[in-house]
Design goal:
By secondary structure, this protein is α+β, with helices and mostly antiparallel strands. The chain has two domains: 86 residues, no CATH class; 231 residues, Bira Bifunctional Protein, Domain 2 (BirA Bifunctional Protein, domain 2, 2-Layer Sandwich), CATH 3.30.930. The strands form two sheets. It has a seven-stranded mixed sheet, with helices on both faces. Strands 2-3 form a two-stranded antiparallel sheet. β6 and β7 form a beta hairpin. α1 runs parallel beside α3 and α4 crosses α8.
Length: 340
């Protein structure tokens, strides 16, 4: 059989095969197979005498065009039949619709919004700042110079190639920015994402904090206690007590850890699993703002005093709902999230 006859045979076979194709996938597969066979015949062009090569090339290209045109026609007809079937389909409009299951806010978003509401009730406003910070706002202005040992405890993520630029380790940097921009009185809370090199069941490299700052004339430690009691009674329930344990933080003096009477066992003798038998649960660090911090923002420490407190939002959610692994908040497991 000559090459010319072979081309004719390919076109004839294509016509039979595409007539039986019932889907777009089958039609395109038939087209590809037939075009491949024509191209294989074109590769044998050197076998022909020179005077026949041109005519064979014209014939092969015509065959390819016929295959492509027929494929297009078949696809158009297939789409038209599909549209016609849609129009002929009977739909019972009285059937109830298939509603999309309603979603809800992430548990950490719910807790954050509730915390904001609790503090705005007593006159606080929300302040925000950048997550990528400079060394000045994150450390130096908070009384942590370059050689301060507290910097080692922060386990900071520094930005490669950008000296003095880092992912903030706390939202205390928002306090500095706010004090630089405004004069007292200041009553702010600063919720937001922070980053540290911690990774275990109770720590995550990324987590959320909410810090509180009050600066004005005559602010006392007792004012701090009043704010904390308001928060605890609103968030965990009435009647719970708090206690302060002396502790060190570079940017407050004096500084303290805040413990709350266990909300699960009520601080009864022997305690429970959550409070490890002590009857108390640690909430976070606090204290009166160190005068050195006021010096960085241009406040007169003889005239103004203030207090600050910080807590982890994940920890607040853990204490309320009994979650034992902080990573559960970020794994996007619907089985966990739909519980809240």
């Amino acid at each position: 059989m000559s090459l010319v006859e072979d081309v004719g045979q390919v076109v004839k076979s294509f016509g039979g095969e595409i007539a039986e194709a019932s889907s777009e996938q089958d039609i395109r597969a038939t087209q590809a197979s037939s075009l491949r066979r024509v191209n294989d015949l074109l590769k044998r062009l050197p076998e022909l005498p020179k005077e026949e090569r041109k005519q064979f090339g014209i014939l092969a290209n015509a065959a390819k065009k016929e295959i492509e045109d027929e494929t297009k026609r078949r696809l158009v007809a297939l789409a038209a039949r599909a549209r016609q079937r849609d129009l002929e389909r009977v739909v019972d409009v009285t059937l109830p619709g298939r509603a999309t299951p309603p979603g809800h806010l992430h548990i950490l978003t719910q807790v954050t919004r509730e915390l904001v509401e609790i503090f705005t009730e007593i006159g606080f406003e929300v302040a925000t700042g950048p997550q990528v910070e400079t060394d000045f706002y994150n450390f130096e202005a908070l009384a942590m110079p370059p050689d301060h040992p507290a910097r080692d405890a922060q386990d900071t993520f520094y930005i490669a190639g950008q000296e003095g630029v880092l992912l903030r380790t706390h939202t205390s940097s928002v306090q500095i920015r706010t004090m630089q921009e405004r004069r007292p009185p200041i009553r702010i809370i600063s919720p937001g994402v922070v980053y540290r090199r911690d990774d275990d069941a109770t720590h995550s490299p990324m987590f959320q904090q909410l810090e509180m700052l009050v600066v004005d004339e005559g602010i006392r430690f007792s004012d701090l206690k009043g704010c904390l009691l308001h928060f605890i009674h609103r968030f965990f329930g009435p009647g719970l007590s708090i206690r302060f344990r002396s502790s060190y933080f570079p940017f407050v003096e004096p500084g303290a850890e805040v413990d709350m009477q266990c909300s699960f066992c009520g601080g009864k003798p022997g305690g429970c699993r959550l409070c490890k038998g002590t009857g108390w649960i640690e909430l976070g660090g606090c204290g009166m703002v160190d005068p050195r911090v006021f010096a960085y923002v241009g406040y007169d420490s003889e005239k103004y005093t203030g207090f600050a407190w910080g807590m982890g939002i994940e920890r607040m959610a853990q204490l309320r709902h009994g979650v034992n692994d902080v990573k559960l908040y970020y794994e996007n497991d619907v089985r966990f999230l739909r519980q809240f």
